[in-house]
Specification:
By secondary structure, the chain is an alpha/beta fold. The chain is 47% helix and 14% strand. α3 packs parallel to α4.
Length: 262
């Protein structure tokens, strides 16, 4: 099985913490040159120092705020003038705030749509020509199991994640002929800052303890534990590799079996 990513150029978004950071680490361990993307420059510098360089990898970073799509477009286009080759794009952005859909403000939907679908689309369009020329492209979107079954109290997230999922499937159908695959990884409850925030918010709103809310969530997972970010990263890394060359247009849950449907 060919999992070698030496000489491959990867862009990983949201890569200063959680799943995004774990993905960047794993791709670097497999030999890829990784460009980190996030909004905090000090955190970007710190993660860059953690990445494997044993195969001569040259890592870099882009400091950009996804709430400003026009700024992202300018930054990625300038980057591609300097580094015109991209083989792997991992789209990953922190999810919208929790809450029921019927109480969400219009701005919450438009903001999430821009942060996720519009910014993803800007990045894909910027990288597409390079992937076509290389005859190797891997576009991997880290979304949520809510694209298969909406999750309670995540109204905005459920809505926007589904839009990204269908956008990705459409791209997979269009780009497969160029040897570019487009796939979605759907993390379940994963030990990240976001999960901690979700549990704490549920505890506050319900009046129950954090431990009780956590136990209730664990009871929904057949494996009886939360995922580690590295376990989600392993799935992303496989889809980025040559070994996954004929996997295209799928939703891959990494959720310990929590999602009720196939």
């Amino acid at each position: 099985m060919n999992l070698d990513l030496k000489n491959k150029q990867a862009i990983v978004c949201g890569s200063t913490q959680g799943i995004g950071k774990a993905v960047a680490i794993e791709l670097a361990n497999m030999g890829a040159h990784v460009t980190l993307v996030a909004r905090n420059e000090e955190s970007l510098k710190a993660v860059k120092q953690e990445l494997n360089t044993s195969s001569g990898q040259l890592h870099s970073y882009l400091c950009v705020d996804f709430s400003k799509p026009n700024e992202l477009k300018q930054i990625i286009e300038a980057y591609l003038q300097r580094q015109p080759i991209v083989h792997i794009l991992v789209n990953n952005t922190g999810g919208p705030a929790a809450g029921p859909a019927h109480l969400a403000k219009i701005e919450e939907f438009t903001s999430a749509f821009n942060n996720h679908l519009i910014c993803n689309h800007i990045l894909v369009q910027a990288c597409l020509e390079s992937m076509k020329n290389a005859k190797y492209g891997r576009i991997i979107n880290i979304i949520s199991t809510s694209v298969k079954a909406p999750l309670p109290n995540l109204g905005v997230s459920n809505t926007i994640r589904a839009a990204v999922g269908n956008w990705a499937k459409t791209l997979a159908n269009e780009l497969g002929k160029f040897n570019i695959t487009v796939n979605n990884v759907l993390p379940g409850a994963t030990s990240t800052v976001r999960l901690k925030s979700i549990i704490e918010n549920k505890a506050i709103k319900s009046g129950h303890s954090v431990s009780l809310i956590s136990d209730e969530m664990l009871a929904e997972i057949p494996m009886g534990r939360f995922a580690e970010a590295s376990e989600v990263a392993n799935a992303v890394a496989f889809l980025a590799s040559p070994a996954a060359s004929y996997i295209n247009g799928i939703n891959l849950p990494v959720d310990g079996g929590r999602t009720a449907n196939l």
